[in-house]
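Box 3.1 A note on notation
Throughout this textbook, protein chains are presented in two layers. The first layer is the amino acid sequence; the second is a token string describing backbone geometry. Keep the layers aligned when reading.
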Amino acid sequence: MKRGRVFSMLAIGMLAGSVSGASGQEAEMLVSQCLSGANVARIWCEEVAIATQALRAGVGFVDAGGTDVPGSSSTLGKKLGSMPRVSASVRTTLGRLKSPRVTGRSRSDVDDQTLWVPTIQGSIVVSILDGFSVVPSVGGLFSLDLLATASYLRLPSEFGDNAGTVGVGARLGLLRESFTAPGVSVSVVHRGFGEATYGDRTRDNAEITFDLSTTSVRAIIGKDLPFIGFFAGVGWDWHRGDMSLRTTAPGGAISTATDDFTDRRTVYFGGTSWSFLVLQGSIEAGWSSGFGDLPGRTGDFGASSNPLFVSAALRVTL
């Protein structure tokens, strides 16, 4: 009965994330509000709205990264009998984001910019269920781990402050890695980011503020060879929260816009790992899909541009 409840809760959480992501991209609402507030050029309202959407999802993507448990495609399992296994890791990530350059003075030819976001993340994973064996060499079906993460993001100077996040989640095992089988698992993690501000109303013609919480689903497959392991996966991020922008027209008039919607992106990642007894090192890289552009927009920044990340991690499993 307890196992059934755990599986039901996990499935409901994944389904809720899928449904909530259906609201789509609504940058048009921000543009409409921006145009109605003051005599601001349409191209400027469009670029600030696109920048708001790109920066919020980009920061959430870099924080979530690829694997929720670095270098691992299988759940932990149990040590002896009912003794749970515990894993702790530290990971550094460098993410590349792109957006329209909307800080400084507004102009008719808004170009794009590249922003780099380094992060450091710590996580703890605890095994809960060992799962079932299909045959003696194939096990881990419906095994379960719980995990918690904490991150620190060093945001570019255009943001007012750096940021920290915390997250909790679970990983469901479908197949445990063995001599004959790869490891396969699915994880769900929810991270809380808080509020971030990009630009400064005292010196820039645009200021962007957004709240952010991200729900991430990851499906991963991997296989260990004698001296090295490989893994790859696909995932989906749902970025939620209020978004607001404030722009200044050439004559000094102020226009504002606010909206609250969910943005879903697809994530692809892969990497390699090395094990040394209880210590494992890994590196990985990945990218996220872009989003739909505004009809008729002519700005330099391509909404379909892919944020990227690379990361390195160390993990101890006991």
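The first strand starts at residue 86 and ends at 100. Helices lie at 2-20, 27-37, 42-64.
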